[in-house]
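Give me the 3D structure for Large ribosomal subunit protein uL1.
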Amino acid sequence: MQKKSKKMQFNQKKKKNKKNYKIEKAIKILKSMKHANFIESIDAAFNLNINTKKSEQNIRGSVILPHGTGKKIKIAVFTTGKNVKIAQSCGADFVGMEDLANIIKKQKIKFDLIIASPESMELVGKLGPILGPRGIMPNPKFGTVTNNIEKSIQDARKGKINYKNDKNGIIHSNFGKINFSHKHLYANFLALYNSIRQSKPTQLKGIYYKKISISTTMGLGINIDHLSL
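Predicted structure for Large ribosomal subunit protein uL1 (229 residues):
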């Protein structure tokens, strides 16, 4: 049996297995744990009572976190005409069409967000096998297929995140960094939680959240008492 590290033993003492904590307490526990030698992200996992085989029950959406994600993101924009200068002036890291598609195909640069204007989608659609698995395929529901390039870039820089459930009905999403204040993490979590709650399918009856947990990138998960939210 593999011996537990001192860090793991210390962190396990900070939480009680299977106990559910109010979000305020859970954040305090996370911040008091021993962390990796880099600034870890804090992630949330929302296990939803949905049937992913029914398309109308799958959840996807976006929300602007009030205090951002703490991450500097690389943004690429597929567009033409006057939107090229707009995207460049708004701070997009790369703007183009076929040249941008070639960069993505050769994986010369790994972008965190792809924005596309409608007329570029015929080209962007061909990149689905690359962008889809990475979760960055432009989508009108996320506001990443749009004629309002300026707003889309500004929202992303402010801390807009996109979310969707996986095949097990779980939404995994980052909502800040371990060096954020307790107040800022709490506000970000509530914004994400409420956005997902508002996306509840109208035909779904009974409980919506089966389980919620938060964790650092390399840390233990802490279960949240979602009934207290």
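The radius of gyration is 19 Å. Let me know if you want a second pass.
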